[in-house]
Amino acid sequence: MSKGLREHGPVIMVKRNGNKEMLVSDQYARRILTEDKTFSFENGMAKVLGINWLINLHEGSFFRDLDTIARDFSGRRLNQVIPKVWPIFERAVSEVAAAARHKKPTDIKPILHSTLAEVTITIFLGQKYVNPEYSKSVIALSRDISELMGLVPNKPFCARKLPLLWQIYTWIRIMLIRIPWDFGRKFAGELWTDISAKQTPCDTKDETIVEYLIRRYASKNGYVPIASRIWIIVLIITIAFVSVHQTVATIIWITYYLALHPESQKAIHSEISSIMSSQEGTTFDSSDMAKAVVTDSFIREVLRMKGDTINVARLTVKEVEMAGYRIPKEIKSWVLALLKHSRIELEGGKFEVINWYNIASVPPQGRLLLEDYE
């Protein structure tokens, strides 16, 4: 795709999975990512993930609710649960390391799935829900949602030739059969009972996602309407998918690049060891993780090289002119992730961890993190 931009200009049209998509270079990155009235983030995400039907439910609050959870709940909850989830990750690392010592080929994917499922339950649902049966349900639900969203590779012949019929078949098979089955009567029943409790939690110090959402949706007498209870279930399943499927995919990519760049392994190990040593005897929290500049830069560069980051997808909400071309309405528009930092003429395909060393987590007001700024 980067070759296409080099040879044919800053805007090209490509065809993927039977859909036309527009790909732009850094020249038009700012315009696509900031002109909300022309290029919609919510519609773009919904189109990519195949959930157009979902964003119209519950007064169109799907993405707003997820954003609120991320800002208002996840950050606050993270510091509280780090001491609880850290041993889970250590256990997984020990399992992989033990296999490596015996020089056994190891498939890390199932290890990561079980690890992230347990971590997700611990963070969002609390210790009450931590057990192997519920972890299996979370893994299965994550797999179901990824298939529903069309993220499963090697699609069958029917999916490629009859995409609309395949989408309808997939929706019925997963929404009406697989998800209810994989959720499990026990897990779903316990979750529904907790959501239906006519008592609004007052203590927010160690609240779970269930208690947080009850507090948001309950009436003054503590009653949560049935429609809101169902919506809470939808949000929890979505969080499980993002936390397990997407995180596992990212970790696998990071592991792959660590294997390709052993020099980065040494730098990251040295940095993390130094931070851990300085915090010995104290609680490790997110402020300590923010000190891991080398690790952060490595992850950013891996995500850049991954190249299919969906949060740079937009959907045209009206006809628009760009680079002399007229782009129709409802065309997916992408800023190629490979160009997010190193521009096309500066070897954007070359892996350079140092690219991100001097870039803050949040750019100055009015600037994009995609740009190279001092």
Can you describe this structure in just a few lines?
With 374 residues, the protein is of the alpha+beta class. 58% of the residues lie in helices and 7% in strands. It has 15 helices and seven strands.
What key attributes describe this structure?
about 375 residues; alpha+beta; 5-stranded mixed β-sheet; two-stranded antiparallel sheet; 15 helices; 7 strands; monooxygenase activity
- In N-to-C order, the SSE pattern is HEEHEHHHHHHHHHHHHHEEEE
Strand percentage lies at 5-15%
For the termini, the CA-CA separation is 29 Å
Structural class: alpha+beta
Tally of helical runs: 15
Low-confidence stretches: 337-346, 360-374
Sheet with the most strands? 5 strands, mixed
Tertiary shape: globular
The count of β-strands is 7
Helical fraction equals 55-70%
Rg for CA atoms: 22 Å
Mean pLDDT: 80
Topology of helices and strands:
Elements: H1 2-8, E1 11-16, E2 19-24, H2 29-34, E3 39-40, H3 41-49, H4 52-55, H5 62-101, H6 108-124, H7 132-148, H8 157-161, H9 163-183, H10 185-196, H11 209-217, H12 226-260, H13 262-278, H14 286-289, H15 293-306, E4 313-316, E5 320-322, E6 325-327, E7 332-335
Parallel strand pairs: 2-7
Antiparallel strand pairs: 1-2, 3-4, 4-7, 5-6
Helix pairs in contact: 5-6, 6-7, 6-12, 7-9, 7-12, 10-12, 11-12, 12-15, 13-15
Description of the structure:
- It is found in: Membrane.
- Pfam families: p450.
- Its cofactor is heme.
- This protein is α+β, with helices and mostly antiparallel strands and 374 residues long.
- The chain has a five-stranded mixed β-sheet with strand order 1-2-7-4-3.
- Strand 1 and strand 2 form a beta hairpin.
- The longest helix is centred in the N-terminal third of the chain and has 40 residues.
- It is globular.
- The two termini are 29 Å apart.
- The C terminus is likely disordered.
